[in-house]
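User: I'm new to structure prediction. If I give you an amino acid sequence, what do you actually give back? Let's try with this one:
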Amino acid sequence: MNYLEQSEEIIVKLLHYFITDKNYNPVILHGAKNEIWLENLDNEYKIIRIVSNYIHNDEQLEYDVLRTKQIMKSIKKKTLSLKVPTLSIFVNLGENVHLDKEKSVDNITCLKVTNLDDVVKNNTILEFFPDINKTLDYKEEGMNLFLKLTSEINKKTEKDAKEAEKIFGPKKPIVTYTLIFINILIFMAMYLFGNGSEDSLTLLTFGANYRPLILEFNQYYRLITSSFLHIGILHLLFNMYALYIIGAQIENFYGKVKYIIIYLGSAIFGSLLSICFHDGISAGASGAIFGLLGAMLYFGYHYRLYLGNVLQSQIIPIIILNLFLGFITPGIDNACHVGGLISGIFLAMACGINKDRKMEKINGVILSIIFLAFILFLIKNINF
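Assistant: Good question. You get back a string of structure tokens that encode the predicted 3D arrangement of the chain. For your 384 residues, that looks like this:
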């Protein structure tokens, strides 16, 4: 086997291992020739580079490291990460390159690989990928090996594409439409069977959030019914428009059942935190909608490489702007917004986006319980 065939075999085997065994995904970078970038933000090495470009001397290697550092700055900004440890594996270094073992510069580890022994005996690789020795050992050789590995890589990428399609593919937001319909129907009922949506007695009759009735008369149903009431037509229109825009996306990303859990759960958490700091009558879907924003924030962080700059340019600014308006505008129950937002993040984590990340789901449940306990502690100890 000549050197070119050997290097190609190493590349295919490494790609197969990192993609099919370690769930790395290819990253498309413009201008990156003869090198393959793989990402897995859940791994210790978040980026793997397999470089087949011929590097003649130390100066060219230094330039490669410098260029990689520049690309990493962009990735760190996009992924909101302070550090993005990167493993650069070079399979085509010239004799004038002095990289006998490895070199680490600013979270970039450079490894020289000329054969498979360099891979399975390297201390750095074995530390973070201890099973690589077993998975690189195949009975097939030559073209049969190449066809086997590429076929399995293609199957993995097709599976990932189908998973992404299930998440990102458009679906009819039936739950969102139903929630909007219920809110509008109740708003109309407040005029048909009461004195209108701005009348205090009517609001209380229909289940508005009011601290004395909840704490002294145990009317806990108000924690959820209040999220379906609105004070005035502008309040209704603003919240229903926000629900139509944000709710449809969350229902699409998480599915109907998880969406309902996040929506109703955030509404309850928001109402609970509201009675800690708000002593008047409170109503509106804002707490639930801020919960959906929290779920969007969690989703955007989870899929930040896929969504590009959407997290920084759209999701976070919308949340900050709405919270800011809530703090400076009189009469706005911002405690409900904050409670909904925080619980939305925790509940989204507990529900999970896909079947993986079991430990993260457990953490989401634990954080939701801790947050609930914190709010209940506030309710019990605040001197109203």
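You can read the tokens as a compact description of the fold. Here is one thing that stands out. The CA atoms of residues 258 and 351 lie 6 Å apart.
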